[in-house]
Amino acid sequence: TLPGPDGEQPVNAGLSGRVISIAPDGTASDRIAGFPSYAFPMETGGVYRIIPHNESLWLLFSGTGSGSTGAFWADSIVEYDADTLVVKNVINLNNFEATHDPDGNGYDTNVADIAWDADGTLYIVDAGGNDLLSWTEAGGLQLVHAWSDNPVPTSIEVAENGDLYIGFLGAGMAPGAGKIEHWSDGELVETFSGLSTVTDILLDGDTLYAVQLTIFTDQGPGPGSVVTVTADGATPIAEGLIAPFGIAQGADGALYVTFGTVAFAPGMTGGVVRLTP
Predict the structure, then answer these.
(1) pLDDT tens-digit profile of 153-185?
(2) pTM score over 0.90
């Protein structure tokens, strides 16, 4: 069990988390290995994203809020030197959430995504905390905005003009509750609604992509998709993906999407699919 503000929770824990690199020929090798992984009754926690930026690798290590308060690096962002893997910064969201509870819904934090603006300010979306934070080495963590209706922000992109785009899973993962908000100068200027379970977004110039973890049908949740999003709605560019989650663009302009990120059945495996938009 692991202790937390709400008492102890049972957990299966191991050191199976890792960051891997994949060569052009498809060969996978460990870059960093031995991260703790935590399997709780309702969800799992551990390595969530790895994002290269300038001369650093930024690792997002997500926990389960109160259930993983005492867990190693839970709900933290860790900056590594990309060459030496020396840890340069550790940003922990637990204390900020426990102290401030910006959404007023009680203690919960799941660091979900990060992005930078032109002056180097780091923006953080906390899915469990339902808030948007900023961070600089000089100023530390600062609250930018909080949502009290539990929309679960999962992803963020910063446009060239400094505008922010934020993707949301949607309260209760309800069909059509997913959305993307467009913020400019601290004001909400546009909402792209009617999406489902948005787990990641990507902004490529004027093209906005979204990953939908699952699409709900009359038979229940089904495979997910990647769509482009405009004011006129969503247009699929890849469908039938099993539990897609993250999206990134390579130097070749192709899109790389992770899949198999939720184990719906024993023996499921994950991977990365390459898409040519």
Answers:
(1) 999 999 999 999 999 999 988 889 999 999 999
(2) yes
In angstroms, what is the C-alpha Rg of the chain?
18
CA dist 110 → 103, 162, 165, 212, 259 (Å): 13, 25, 19, 19, 20
What is the C-alpha separation between 157 and 31, in angstroms, rounded? 26
Q: Is 269 helix (H, G, I), strand (E, B) or coil?
A: coil
Pairing of strands 207-212, 224-230: antiparallel
Residues 11-20: contacts with CB within 8 Å, 24+ apart?
Answer: 11/38, 11/39, 11/40, 11/67, 11/68, 12/38, 12/39, 13/37, 13/38, 13/39, 13/71, 17/46, 17/47, 18/47, 19/47, 19/50, 19/57, 19/59
Classify 49-61+76-275 by CATH class: mainly beta
Nearest to 226 by CA among 274, 263, 265, 181: 274
Nearest to 6 by CA among 106, 97, 148, 110: 106
Task: Give the pair of three-digit tokens for residue 259.
Answer: 């899949």
Point out which residues pair with 275 in neighbouring strands.
Answer: 255
Annotated domain spans of the chain? 49-61+76-275
**Residue 207 and residue 218 in contact, taking contact as beta carbons nearer than 8 Å:** no
The answer to whether 7 and 21 have CB atoms below 8 angstroms apart is no
Beta sheet of 233-241, edge-to-edge order? 198-204, 207-212, 224-230, 233-241
